[in-house]
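agent> Task received from the user: take the single chain below, predict its 3D structure, and emit structure tokens. No templates, no multimer pairing.
agent> Plan: (1) validate residues, (2) run structure prediction, (3) serialize to tokens, (4) report one or two observations.
agent> Step 1 OK, no nonstandard residues flagged.
tool_call: predict_structure(input=
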Amino acid sequence: MSLDEPPVIVVPATPTSNGGLHVGHLAGPYLAADVYARYQRARGKFVIHTTCTDDSQSFVATRAAGLGIAPADLVRDATAQIGQAFTALGATLVGLPPVDETYRRTVLDFVTAQHQAGAFELRTVRFPFARRAGVCLYDALVSGICPTCLAQSSGGACEACGHPNNFDELLDPYYPLDPTDDVEHREVEILVLPLERLRNQLADYYAQHAPRWRPNARDLVTELMAGPLPDVPVTVPGHWGLPAPFAETPGQRLYPWIEAMPAIIYSTWWSAGRLGRPAERTDQFWLADTQPTIVYFHGYDNVFHWGMLDVAMLLSHPQRYATPTVTVTNEFYELDRSKFSTSRGHLISATDLLDRVPRDLARFYLALTAPEFQRTNFTEADLRNVVATRLVRPWNRLATALAELTIPDGAVLPVSAVGRARAQVVADRLRRHYQDDRFSPGGVADTIATQLDRLARDTINSDTAADMLAQVQTLLAYAAPILIDVTDMLAGAGVRLRIDDGPVDKVTMFRLPMLPATFDQLAPGADAGRAS
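)
tool_result: status=success, residues=532
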């Protein structure tokens, strides 16, 4: 890895600091981003795997109100919980950057430059207001009916169809913190970012990049581009978040989704410094001349904000910035056939699961069942069954067979042409799932299980050991981004686990450690660990 080469910037969606992470979060962007970052590092790339907490979101204010605590206290506690979840997952993030003065300066300098360049327009719009509370209703502060698909929705964007709904667009709006409060509409003068002005630039971007997106996200962008593109609020008359720095909108707050793009630029700079590559400019790694590869991981419900608004923020800035190269989206991960929900307490916390299930086994199952193309469902009964049958049993059969060989550890064995060819097939089958245009941790996990089952069923003796070990060694090298603990143990013992090394001509005799054969520490029943 050269610190001088263009970086690979891996950005999983910024977690909202209104609670800890749950299993649905892990199976969505966070495990996928970690697998991708680990693979790119194994290829010798300089990887900045980074995100930061999304403290200004209205979901923080509504959650804090529901708990009866100050939003700042919720942010503090939730940030600690989120960090603990990333640590438990084994994510390669170097930490969560502080939302400090450098953060605020980066965000405000970014939007001020946009404003001075004429990217924003002053508009009079209609917002719903809760009459008794006197609160402007947007994003988490308003619920109603999506005008595009008629599903129940919060403000900002609909989780069901992904379409944005700003200002007065929600049908039958109400104030979720007090549904009895009357809602009226008031005209407010705010700044907006008119996306229609950027239509041609956005169309060029999607023509180049969207063909590599997953189908649902690509289809949503096609739908959005087929109609008039919306105005996005830049400022809102809110009570939580960064104060807007614009003279035209005194007392207003910066809309949190506008804040998100410069927040990630700051986070990239902070993380790079802790990886030994400090920069004086906080936007250094996003400058177009730096030529970074930028890979986003987020849910389908955030395609509008992460896949369109973030791009528009970069395109409308007077500084020439790079734009995301690859966008990897996920659908919803369900618990008992219902969406994981922090607000409803319908969840299993990430740290709870990882406390009770060995990390490699949890990572394998979550990768295998991740909702890459459609909703998938989590139950602990299924976790126990799938991990036992597809990972632990074949692994341990193979480990037992290797342990029974009389070949001494450290013996160097020549690999035959047949063994080299089969090891290459294993590498090819796994490598295809790591390619940017088809990246699939589920495909990697499924291939790991398929190859383990095949190898465990083959006869291993002194004559076949070298060819078998060449295939096992290759399998482990490509499995390492998912099975992080067992492969770290083997690498520490001297087993060569490198990808793209070419044909394996010889192999040094090694054994496999056994994986846990029972889940005694995993409480029975699908309700185990659910928050009350």
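agent> Step 4: summary for the user.
The CA atoms of residues 53 and 99 lie 8 Å apart.
agent> Done.
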